[in-house]
Amino acid sequence: MKLIAAQIRSTPGDIEKNIARHLDVIHLAARQGANLLLFPELSVTGYEPRLAETLAVHPSDDRFDEFQVLSDRYGMLIAVGAPTKGLQGTEISMIAFQPGLARTAYSKQQLHADELPFFTPGTKGCVFEHANTVLAPAICYESLQLSHAEHAAKSGAQVYLASVAKSERGVKSGYSHYPMIARKLSMTVLMANCVGAADDYIGAGQSAVWNRDGELVCSLDATQEALVAYDLQTGEASIFSLA
Prior knowledge:
The protein is α/β, with parallel strands linked by helices. The chain has helices at residues 15-31, 49-55, 65-74, 146-154, 168-185; strands at residues 2-7, 36-38, 77-85, 90-97, 104-107, 128-130, 133-139, 159-163, 188-192, 195-198, 201-204, 208-210, 216-219, 226-231, 237-241.
């Protein structure tokens, strides 16, 4: 199974433009043989908490239909980030498109204190099964909580999908935490981070993959839009520029 993390720069608040960018990236990932493509946190809108209530969508939004078309065409699990309309308020969600299946939305269960004025937490965990692999979603702050990763491992996850929007400080925390949980829980960790403006900071990129032994096998820099790819079977890793 080939895992790919997309490190992209989203245009704040411009859903249509960001969807078009996602579609371009999906086609490129397909040409590289991706079975799984992971985008950063809130990739469809950019990480903009103050705009999230206005921008919030329903997972069934027909603007996302092309993601399902491409998932079916390429046999690819595609996971994008968007603010969604929950029963209690706006949630930070990962919307997953799988071949021949109804789309699934997982909402961030553990919010950072700075997010509490703008978002409500999700209440349900989940895992995805694709290409004979069990994958667990994790969204930014919660991906740095050991309890979240332990629950994923108990659910049978072989791959931990960390969709994030991290500053330089956050990336440093991730680079300390992710190899530890990979090694401790025997899970491959794939991190997709953004670059460019995000809320009141700059996304620090450095998207990466750690194998189940906790070894960093491939990573990007802090500014480039690119893909980082990892083959679970062969252990081979590669980078593809989006320039």
